[in-house]
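Hey, I was hoping to borrow your eyes for a little while. A protein chain has come my way and I'm curious about its shape. Take your time with it, there's no hurry, and the full record follows here:
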Amino acid sequence: MIVGFPDETEEEFKATVDFLRKIHFYEMHIFKYSRRKGTVADRMPGQIPDAIKNRRSDVLMKIEEEMSDEYRMSYVGKKCLVLFEEKVTINGEEYYVGHTDTYVKTAVKSSQPLENVIAGVEITGKLTKNIMLAGMKTIC
């Protein structure tokens, strides 16, 4: 999403917010429009001040965080297959981290090496802002 393109009105921005809440994206990439000399947009009237672009970007980033968290939390209690990619240390503890087939980043503790292993898990909660915690079910 680009916010603050020349002539973007408050009404248009509100329509964008309403649309995003309706669509309910799992993740969004939000950028503030920045002028580039020599482009058509650089010559357009109605350039938006940085303070307004910053505010609009902050609003969308907060919405993205809410929707992303809600999406991840909807997996609690679900059984999923995860392709584990690497062993990492989080808060001083070792976990294997990978992604579900719907790209939800998930971590488990395991005494067995899990790199490049697809394993059945049950999502039990959130480990970090972007990583769900799971318990092992079966190894495929």
In short: The chain has a mean pLDDT of 94. The helical segments are 10-23, 50-73. The two ends are 38 Å apart (CA to CA). The beta strands are 2-3, 31-32, 79-90, 93-100, 105-108, 117-126, 132-139.
